[in-house]
Design a protein that fits this description.
Length: 99
C-alpha cells in the first residue's frame, strides 16, 4: 500500500499536461503529412509494394498502401523522402511508432 501511495504522489507531482500541437509542430522543419508528389515518389521508389512484407496491390486486390515515417514523426522524424517508406496497411498499423 505504501508503494502505491508513493507512486500516486510521484505521478501527481509530474507535469501531466501534454504538449500543445503548436509546441509539437515547432520541433519539426516539415509537416507531418507528405505532399501527394512526395507520396508518389516514395511509392515509385519502393516499386508500389510494401517494404516489410513485399505485398503489392498488383498481386493482392484491395490492398491499401501507406507512406510511413521510418523514424516516427512523434519521435522527431522529418517528412523527407529518406525517412519515408511504403508499407501495406496491416504492416503499418501493426508497427505503430516503434523504430
Amino acid at each position: 500500500m505504501k508503494a502505491l501511495e508513493e507512486f500516486v504522489a510521484y505521478a501527481n507531482a509530474q507535469d501531466m499536461q501534454p504538449p500543445t500541437p503548436a509546441e509539437t509542430a515547432s520541433d519539426h522543419k516539415t509537416g507531418r503529412d507528405p505532399s501527394l508528389r512526395l507520396r508518389f515518389r516514395v511509392m515509385k521508389r519502393d516499386n508500389f509494394s510494401c517494404r516489410a512484407c513485399g505485398a503489392s496491390p498488383a498481386l493482392k486486390s484491395g490492398l491499401s498502401l501507406h507512406v510511413d515515417h521510418i523514424k516516427a514523426w512523434s519521435l522527431g522524424g522529418e517528412t523527407v523522402e529518406d525517412n519515408l517508406q511504403t508499407l501495406c496497411e496491416p504492416c503499418n498499423l501493426g508497427k505503430s511508432n516503434v523504430l
